[in-house]
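anyone seen this seq b4? input:
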Amino acid sequence: MGWRSRARRAVQPPREAPAPARLTDERPQAPWHPVPLVELSVFVGLVLIVVGFVIGLGSDGGRLALLSGLVLASLGGLDTALREHFAGFRSHSSVLSGLPAVLVAGGLFFGRAPWAAVIAGGAITFAAAFWWFRLAFRRRSGGLSFR
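predicted toks r here
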């Protein structure tokens, strides 16, 4: 080892490890923070679910109200889960993995695929999405796999 390599090492500043993500006990706020959009979405969704049952599931209006209520309430929950997960606040890997798995299984089902393909497609999609969501949470939370 020559004097030049020792001098070069002495001049270079030491490498610092990346700072871990700042963990707080407060939920991340939505971009539309003063407006309680998620809460309103869930509330309207619950009202539509009740209206759907009151009208009756035998009619088109009742089924439409029920389906709209389920979708609206689910979107409110999905928004909260996505914000908390990608902010490193709480891991929602399982819940978030269910969405692409249901979409793939639904697509296979309505495409008239065999039951084995529907189940396998949903399971493989769930596993791949779970791995990706867990990896994303580890990056955001400073290395934690759940919190």
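The helical segments are 3-11, 37-55, 60-86, 93-110, 115-141. The mean pLDDT is 85. kinda curious what u guys think
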